[in-house]
Amino acid sequence: TISKTYTIASIPGDGIGREVIPAGQRVIETVAQKRGFAVKWDTYDWSCERYAQTGRMMPEDGIEQVKGSDAIYLGAVGYPGVPDHVSLWGLLIPLRRELDQYANVRPVRLLKGVQSPLAGRSAEDIDFVVVRENVEGEYSEIGGRIYEGTEREMAMQEAVFTRKGVDRIMEYAFELAKTRKRGHVTSATKSNGIVHTMPFWDERFAAASERHPGIETAQFHIDILTAHFVLHPDWFDVVVGSNLFGDILSDLGPAVAGSIGIAPSANINPEGVYPSMFEPVHGSAPDIAGKGIANPVAAIWTAAMMLEHLGEAEAAADIERAIEHSLASEETRTADLGGRANTEEATNAVVDALSA
Ligand code: NAI
Ligand code: MG
User: Fold this and answer.
1) I need a labelling partner for 251 at 20 to 30 A (CA). Which of 118, 129, 202, 227 fits?
2) ipTM of the prediction
């Protein structure tokens, strides 16, 4: 019997997005059958290809079209011939901002069967989550350029930190820490060099810490923090950062956990007023697109995060176990992890493990 039907907006996008999102959908269909729920897929062709044909990445009322869905499942956008700022500002950023997906969440976990580029690290050593503020901070449109092309040329860009914006990302990080074994939050700062916004960030971190006395905390300046990610990944549990610092850490984190081909991410609207959006960390990989060799695990792990967010925790755990099973053997791992499987074979391995 089917207990529930979720409506999911699927946006495969460009390049390998069109290969790994169908793989993830197959996995979701399999686990849905097992766990007794159903998914109604609304698929959108929003992409650089569409941009080339129509001059827009998505239709003018695109956000209205997906607003009512339970979640958004996105591959990647970007393709040679279309400038990256067009694909980013024409699709990803409007979705994240207008759907108020203010928490960008990237789990960093060294899975069994994956080799970290860090020497001597095993699965127990790397298990943390980067929480990035996703809608304000350093990535603002406030600023400008004057006297272009002259000696007096000048460029200026303002960082925007609001109490509401900072407090809610801190709250998200501390609440997340409560659900994890260690219950520890690290803040990324730079209050020695950036003397207005970062001391404010530190104050709000301290205030959040007082509201959550059971959670241990630490804070580091961003420069030494990046070094600690490499030298002491075992120090971290939940790491919270501003839009810029979080962006840097959320690429570095997955890199120390092995491969961009497995890293998942979520753009969360914690209040559930709008749908949250789930996407693998990787891009459209034009260098391997169309060859059927992309690693589907990032999209599949992303699917697990989406199901967990929708309240299907058991289905999510099933998928994570099936992923670890598929990564255990060279026969079912893709080439980026030193394996011999193509996208379809790697996906089959996950589906088989779920059905077993
Ligand atoms: P990329 O992540 O697409 O590729 C980087 C390298 O990793 C490539 O060598 C690629 O073959 C490899 N790779 C990535 N995913 C893989 C997978 N699943 N399996 C095996 N190998 C994989 O990043 P790149 O090359 O910087 O960007 C390509 C395009 O993607 C650009 O247009 C960029 O703007 C866009 N992009 C879009 C993102 C998004 O939609 N969120 C995120 C990152 C990039
Ligand atoms: Mg990035």
Assistant:
1) 202
2) 0.97
